[in-house]
Design brief:
Blueprint lengths: L2 H6 L5 H10 L3 H10 L2 E2 L13 E2 L5 E6 L8 H13 L4 E4 L6 H11 L3 E4 L1 H9 L7 H14 L3 E4 L5 H8 L10 H13 L4 H4 L1 H11 L2 E4 L14 H20 L3 E5 L8 H11 L5 E3 L12 H15 L3 E3 L12 H22 L4 H13 L3 H7 L3 H9 L17 H11 L29
Parallel strand pairs: 3-4, 3-10, 4-5, 5-6, 6-7, 7-8, 8-9, 9-10
Antiparallel strand pairs: 1-2
Helix pairs in contact: 4-5, 4-15, 6-7, 7-11, 8-12, 13-14, 14-15, 16-17, 17-18
Amino acid sequence: MTQMDEAKRGRTTEAMRYVAAVEGLDPEELRRRIAAGRAIIPKNVHHDFNPIGVGEGLSTKVNANIGTSGHHQQIDEELRKLEVAVRCGAEMVMDLSTGDELDLVRRTILKACPVMLGTVPIYQAVADRGSVFGLTADDLFGVIERHAQDGVDFVTVHCGVSREAVRRLDSSDRVAGIVSRGGSMLASWIARSGEENPLLTQFDRLLDIAFEHDVTLSLGDGIRPGATADATDAAQIQELLTLGELTVRAHARGVQVMIEGPGHVPIDQIEANVLLEKRVCRGAPFYVLGPLTSDVGAGYDHITGAIGGAVASAAGADVLCYLTPAEHLRLPTIEDVRDGVIATKIAAHSGDMAKGVFWARERDAQMSVYRKKLDWEGQYRLALDPEKAREFRYLSEDYDKAVCTMCGTLCSMALENARAKSGARVEGGPEQSRHQLVPLHLPVVPREVRA
């Protein structure tokens, strides 16, 4: 049975109890959210790792993309990217490999992966066939089943790239057209064959595979906007409406679902996109690709994406897909992966503070106390990137003093601490509260050698 099927039968699984403990939730409440499709635990029955929850009331998760390409195939490098991404806090990883020996690459990554792993099966289906135009439904479903049997926890399937969605796109004045690889493959196949998307017409076949292995369907946004000028247009909304209908069918079958979202979206449209997805798809977890708030951040798109990601998370998005400084330019290096994950973790944490997620505000409050006390070790422990914080501090001439080189003897914290120690204060106001320190045991993020 799937986690959703168990939840609908009123059973609280060990995975649900574990996730509830980690997230600070009541297990029964989490079970109800999973039964309703508002939360998921993507964990293939063939993949052994500690379960991770996604969705309503849970912390915002971060996904990191890795994978070989036909122009750069170094499996050892991808394994290092996997290690760095997980150590930096990524709870999800996608293998987007498009080179050769894709079964070997996927199985090698999966064996080493201690978090949720996702794939986009159509990449391999087209690679195996040699051309998208010769692709058959059996080719595509055969690859999907192979990924499920291997232990992949979620698969991106572009079921909403329909003839109607492509028609709307072709009749529009889009700037960037289709930027999704899977979306462009299916749109080309539909236009050439004149037939409907087999992932849509044979959706029940997809549900059977997903149910057997408890694979979460990540319903992909194949017609997502790849330029801010294209955001929230008719083609994008048409695809979302289809995904909403398919979500209902998946939930009825007991199959877990999350919805992928844009893309390039101006900052003033992000909240509306999140609310629309939640409404159309009955609260299914929303997995946004960024979103990028501008198209001009080349070389810094991890920052552009983090800005949009923070807004999206605060509005209710459940997963942020990282972007790296190399986005749109080249395959990311190990250092790019590291920078991308950390930037996205900052965005996710910022959103969690707005959503009132367990421990988010407490962590910030404790960091403020450590800063007030000039407790450098405490600050390192709570920083999202402890090693970089420590590295910057040790580059200072005053690294072993109770000041920093920004303010030196004029340090406001030092002056405040001295004033408090002297007992000097303005009387007559309400008694000030005293913050209590509660130790947090957080993972240390290693500072990697630049690749």
